[in-house]
UniProtKB/TrEMBL annotation:
Component of the NDC80 complex. This is Kinetochore protein Spc24. One of its GO terms (molecular function) is microtubule binding. The keyword Cell division applies. One of its GO terms (cellular component) is Ndc80 complex. Residues 61-82 are annotated as: Disordered. Its main location: nucleus.
Amino acid sequence: MPVEELAEQRDLMQSTVANLKHSNESQLCRDLSQQLESLREYRRTEQDKMQEQLKQLSRRLQDVRSRVDASKAQREQKSHAEVMRDLEAEKQAAADAIAAQESRQTQLNAETAVLEKQLQAQDDNIEHQMVPDEGVLMLQILRGLGVEPLTNVQTGLVESARVWTPKSAYVVPVCEDTQEHQPTPHQLAARLWDLCS
């Protein structure tokens, strides 16, 4: 084979190798480019998923916070209502106790007034018994002097008197109207005193 043909074949082979090499490099570049794009797409997809998950977590967290705040407010409101109910119950109990005390005080005042009246009546009665009327006292003195009033058993009136003397006793009428009118102890004592004088 002539040298020229060999040279042409060698050049052709070199050119073919160069073309193949360039073609392989281009394919490799395209493959790498596609892989890189795929990776970028995957990364964007994953980032989007992560962003969506973060948003969902944020919404859930916000919802939980809202429920916690609502529950706390409800507990505080309930606690305030319970405190107000307790205070109202204590206030009512105190008012009832005061009313009962006032009622008891009124009852005690009434009972005290009744007892005071009874004691006053007893004092008056004792005083009346201890300090007799002037007429009664005079009758007692007259009896000591020997003048004894006599009461009619049928009428219950003092009609006469028995006068005792050192030697005898005699009966004298007290007054003419004793059949109709009973003299008071004072009047009777005065008339008996006249008999003694």
